[in-house]
Amino acid sequence: QVQLVESGGGLVQAGGSLRLSCAASGSIFRINTMNWYRQAPGKQREFVAIITSTGTTSYVDSVKGRFTISRDNAKNTVYLQMNSLISEDTAVYYCAAEILGVVTGTWRRYWGQGTQVTVSS
Q1: 107: DSSP letter
Q2: 3-class SS at 103?
Q3: Tens digits of residue pLDDT in 51-72
Q4: Is the alpha carbon torsion for 91, 97, 80, 7 positive or negative?
Q5: pLDDT at residue 1 is higher than 90
Q6: Which residues on adjacent β-strands are paired with residue 39?
Q7: In angstroms, rounded to a whole number, what is the distance separating the alpha carbons of residues 91 and 40?
Q8: End-to-end CA distance of the chain
Q9: What is the pLDDT of residues 60-106, one digit of tens each?
Q10: How far apart are CA 13 and CA 76, in angstroms?
């Protein structure tokens, strides 16, 4: 059973930094893209950042220059370094990954359970 587990969320003051981690485990054959999304209460989930298997990255405009996505393939882990945080960054952050399962032999998107990030003023 493939699982993604996020960690690193918490309460931080505006202007501060936080680093999120998401580790994949289970019967994994290969991981393609890894992504971060976020969802504020009462709002739609939105894309934040993506990193391909070769390290190419892309971000939503609102976090460009402040957030950095990276990955450690040996640990099946994706990170999101968040700097210069503002109140608008407050949300539950979810990781997602496209994974080729050993048992199924098919590609599937897996989601973590989310980690809360709260930015105070």
Answers
A1: E
A2: coil
A3: 999 999 999 999 999 999 999 9
A4: positive
A5: no
A6: 92
A7: 4
A8: 41
A9: 999 999 999 999 999 999 999 999 999 999 999 999 999 999 988 99
A10: 30
